[in-house]
Target: DUF2188 domain-containing protein
Amino acid sequence: MAFNVIWYGRKGIIDKVTFDAEKVAKDHAIAMFQTRRGDDGVICVEVRKDGTVVFSHSEN
Model:
């Protein structure tokens, strides 16, 4: 199964990355959030499997 990490900015999707395992996808999203927030203006990240959100994270 493929797990998609989708990075969102104020104007929509910034980037998508695919992983084979849910744990790896979630760990990547958590580890990279602050960096992507500062560098790319990310406001939210989701991990999706078959169109269903299995994890999401955002900060004010």
In short: Residues 22-40 form the longest helix (19 residues). Strands lie at 3-9, 12-19, 44-49, 52-58. The mean pLDDT is 96. The helical segments are 22-40.
